[in-house]
From TrEMBL:
This is Methionine adenosyltransferase 2 subunit beta. Signal peptide: none annotated. One of its GO terms (molecular function) is dTDP-4-dehydrorhamnose 3,5-epimerase activity. Pathway: Amino-acid biosynthesis; S-adenosyl-L-methionine biosynthesis; S-adenosyl-L-methionine from L-methionine: step 1/1.
């Protein structure tokens, strides 16, 4: 390991930094800053080092200054908070918190113009912070610790905290300087798997259309998302995680955790069963348990593959209460995940969906596969005996967002309105993209697939009809049209490959 280790935080340009302590029988030695190794340009120019001592339950901040800080707790422990107070930042008004202790060897890098505050968790706690300019009270532009538009969670009754008169009397943020219509105490959402097909469109919609009511945080695993997100691998054998599930939830203190992440490769689950159970069940259990501990609700995205697919008639669909009988490891792990989530809290919600498609950075979904092949004049074999209810992710994300205010629990099916075989679906895709459909070949038996597939796993949207009677999922053709009109850039890679390479 090359120390210091930098981990990006959901706040732009903010980092948690892990330093190394060299121990021997005498004690230990650690570099808290070394201009050859620390990469932040501003801290390379440290101009002041400050030591602060606090007794338990002292809260200092939220202090905003136009220079950066590097914060280390050298004795005791602090609950350290960064608030983004930069109006031009994509993460404006978001905050994160991390516990720094004398033994966890973590530091926080606070970018210039972000707010910083900490709550001392033990008596005689010592905090050292370097700053890239000398302290100048005239440059302070502080924010009150209990500002409702920032809404930091302090864990303790505020009446029990010791706060200086200066910090207590700091002015609240002025609504006129904030986005018009911004709600105080916005609901905080953590999307696990914000880099995936569904997670990314859910994040996009919440940030673009619902940012006045919601603050969104996310995680990715292999496909990096630039802001609002941290890296988190749900595979328990991973050695890359900086955060435990507990510290992830503490980082952003969500009200709602939406678990979109999964090992979704059906044949891969069959081949690597332990990994599939680890990601799709064990991690889901731990995450929803941690969520419950902080009073957050979990919404778990599940699948039509929990059903056996033996519906007798082509147009038949599974209802929420129908008998579960997964045929493959993927379906079994997702069902176990459902059971865990529902057993942890009666407030939790399981959303089952089916055959997702829509704008996706990786362009790996079914319409993308069909278009790629047909554009290259290659044959596309498609199952005519495997039926599901293709679901447009843009509609699914919108429906989930609209459900948030209804506080639903239990199991709910949310899927597209049409039952279609892969063959029928491929024909519609060819039609929408003006491609030659004679290259699509009907296949009515499984070749050497590793995992068994349900033959008809169509889902009936029964419950949602009572809760959001006006909400309509679009059929395949309308959804494809919306995708082409409203997200054309996402299709460049497959529709105009030469343009996207320019
Ligand atoms: N796709 C479908 O047709 C379909 C149908 C029914 C139900 N569902 C369910 O709907 C949900 C969303 O599906 P999707 O199609 O959006 O999935 P997806 O595009 O395959 O995305 C999967 C997400 O999970 C993350 N992930 C994968 N392995 C991980 C790991 N070890 N640790 C942490 N994160 C990990 C991925 O992160 P990185 O990309 O950063 O690695 C990504 O964000 C899933 O729960 C799935 O079971 C999907």
């Amino acid at each position: 390991m090359n120390y210091p280790i930098y981990t990006e935080l959901p706040i732009q340009d903010a980092f948690v930094i892990e330093y190394r302590a060299f121990s021997d029988s005498r004690g230990y030695l650690a570099e808290l800053y070394n201009s050859n190794k620390y990469k932040q340009a501003e801290t390379e120019n440290l101009q002041q080092i400050t030591l602060s001592q606090s007794k338990k339950n002292v809260l200092r901040g939220i202090h905003k200054v136009p220079y950066s800080k590097l914060v280390t707790c050298v004795r005791g422990a602090i609950y350290d908070v960064i608030v983004d107070l930069r109006h031009n930042s994509p993460t404006f008004l978001m905050w994160v918190s991390i516990v720094l202790t004398q033994s966890n060897h973590k530091q926080l890098y606070i970018p210039a113009d972000c707010g910083h505050a900490f709550l001392s968790l033990e008596n005689d706690t010592l905090v050292v912070y370097g700053q890239s300019q000398p302290f100048n009270p005239a440059l302070e532009d502080n924010c009150r610790f209990d500002d409702p538009f920032v809404n930091v969670y302090w864990h303790l009754d505020i009446a029990k905290l010791e706060i200086s008169p200066k910090d207590r009397d700091t002015a609240l943020l002025i609504p006129d300087n904030l986005p018009k219509g911004l709600s105080p105490h916005r609901t905080r959402i953590l999307i696990i798997g914000a880099s995936g097909q569904l997670g990314s469109i859910l994040t996009y919609k919440l940030q673009k259309y619902y940012q006045l009511q919601y603050v969104v945080y996310g995680t990715y695993c292999n496909n990096k998302v630039d802001t609002h997100c941290v890296k988190m691998d749900l595979n328990s054998s991973s050695t890359e995680n900086t955060f435990s599930y507990h510290s992830l939830l503490q980082l952003c203190h969500p009200n709602i955790v939406i678990i979109c992440a999964a090992m979704t490769w059906v044949d891969g689950c069959e081949k690597s069963q332990n990994k599939a159970y680890d990601i799709n069940c064990n991690a889901v259990f731990s995450l929803s348990l941690e969520a419950k501990k902080i009073g957050a609700k979990t919404i778990y995205i599940s699948t039509d593959y929990v059903f056996g697919g033996v519906l007798p008639i082509y147009g038949d669909k599974y209802m929420e209460e129908d008998t579960i009988s997964p045929l493959n490891v993927y379906g079994k792990t997702k069902h176990r995940g459902e059971q865990f989530v529902l057993s942890i809290s009666k407030d939790n919600l399981v959303v089952r969906t089916s055959s997702l498609f829509g704008p996706d950075k990786l362009n790996k979904n079914f319409p993308c596969q069909v278009v790629r092949k047909l554009k290259d004049n290659l044959k596309f074999p498609a199952f005519s005996h495997v039926v599901s209810t293709p679901t447009y992710t843009v509609d699914l994300a919108e429906c989930i967002i609209q459900l948030l205010v209804h506080d639903c629990s239990g199991v709910m099916h949310l899927a597209g309105p049409e039952s279609a075989s892969k063959y029928d679906w491929a024909l519609k895709i060819a039609n929408s993209f003006n491609l030659e459909n004679t290259l699509i070949e009907k296949v009515d038996s499984f070749p050497a697939l590793v995992a068994k597939r349900p033959l008809n796993s169509s889902l009936a949207n029964n419950r949602i009809g009572y809760i959001l009677p006006e909400f309509k999922f679009r059929g395949i053709q309308d959804a494809l049209e919306d995708w082409m009109i409203n997200f054309p850039d996402s299709l460049d890679d497959i529709v105009n490959p030469t343009k996207s390479k320019l």
